[in-house]
Amino acid sequence: MTAADPLTGDDPLVERFRTLWAELAGIGRDPATGGYLRYAWSPAELACRDWFVAEATNRGLTVRADGNGNLWADWVPAGVNPAGPAVVTGSHFDSVPHGGGYDGPLGIVSALLAVDELREQGFVPARPVIVAAFAEEEGSRFGLACLGSRLLTGGVTAARALALTDAAGVMLAEAMRAAGADPAAAGPDPARLARIGVFVELHVEQGRALVDLDAPVGVASMIWPHGRWRLEFTGAGDHAGTTRMVDRRDPMLTCAHTVLAADANARWLGGHATIGRVEVRPNATNAVPAQVHAWLDARAADPRTLAELVEAITADATARAASDGTTVTVTPESDSPLVAFDPALAEQIRTAIGSGLRVDVPVLPTAAGHDAGILAGHVPTAMIFVRNPTGVSHAPGEYATDDDCAAGVRALAAALAELAAE
Ligand code: HGY
Ligand code: MN
Ligand code: MN
């Protein structure tokens, strides 16, 4: 395994990371905000996938796309049974609108470099090692988080998924077809799922726990339960100037009150509630809106608190609608139950990383969802977090230092070596 020069401190792995990272950095980046616009099946995300296929193929990995748009790059040394239970690692390329560059791609770039590290030290896995890139983890385009891993595991039917539409009304099926994929192939893939012996996802931490603990990497203990709900507020469109205030049935008022209620209830209950996406119809400066659609992202450390939080927000919205003369409907769109990662596996890789890097490796929860959260319901799964100095995520300021990213590669390599050994 590469190591930093004891005299100069120069670390070849940091250079390698910088080089590989720079190849992705420009793809789908908005120069105005510095954020990324890598929506599933869009040209930017497809360019990331093409990059991945080239990099994996250059490493002699066999790359295949499954029927759900997930990519799988297999490292199967001679003499290893390709059908054996594989050690899988990877993440996603897609981003939230103007999101950071690390959320997702860091797990894939680190996986490719971890394979390089293992090969350089002469490690030969006793079972296949596979690098995966999952489709539509953020749900930014079609609204359902972890779409590729949910399809793979049967967490969503192909019929429901293919009919999902983006903001322009394009269905997933059409977007897949436009990218040369066959929507008819979408759906549960039990054979591929059965090949996964264990899954480890490396991800930039979306928080500041590792900063406060002064640790470059950590291991996940659990994922908060969380979900997304579509709120439809309906009133009466009218003239902004000639309509008396007393005569109005303004859905924007009900929506505004609901935003404040979401914040107040989350603070009271200790959960997290966000309304960051709103669509107004007709969205005219001089018209009282007819309809307002808003999306609630709610999360809490346990399912009961989450349910209580959503119930309280719904009750406040409904009560306010009654006094505004409007109506509100609350429709669940994406549900991610609590994930408790396999504690024995977490401890196994924590120990391997700790002895490999000679650092203390904290175990920490997260309130961010991941494909690992979906796979954890089917195969032994773990996550490795890389320190994020600002803790900012889903925004252009998301960041990890090159040194910590190199530490993440070494941590992942140590975990893969531990899991793929005889
Ligand atoms: O929304 C999430 O928690 C994840 O980053 N997709
Ligand atoms: Mn994300
Ligand atoms: Mn992510």
Question: What features would you describe in this structure?
Answer:
By secondary structure, this protein is of the alpha/beta class. It folds into 2 domains: 12-224 and 338-420, Zn peptidases (Aminopeptidase); 226-336, Alpha-Beta Plaits. The protein has helices spanning 12-25, 43-58, 105-120, 147-153, 158-163, 172-178, 190-195, 209-213, 251-269, 303-324, 343-357, 371-375, 402-420; strands at 62-65, 71-75, 86-92, 129-134, 196-204, 217-223, 226-234, 238-239, 272-281, 287-288, 291-299, 327-336, 339-340, 363-366, 381-386. Strands 1, 2, 3, 4, 5, 6, 13, 14 and 15 form a 9-stranded mixed β-sheet that branches. A hairpin with a 5-residue loop joins strand 1 and strand 2 (71-75). Helix 1 (12-25) runs antiparallel to helix 3. The longest helix is centred in the C-terminal third of the chain and has 22 residues, at 303-324. The radius of gyration is 23 Å and the shape is globular. The two termini are 19 Å apart. The model has no long low-confidence stretch (mean pLDDT 97). The structure holds (2S)-amino(hydroxy)ethanoic acid and manganese (II) ion (2 copies). One manganese (II) ion (MN) binds at residues 92, 103-104, 137, 203, 370.
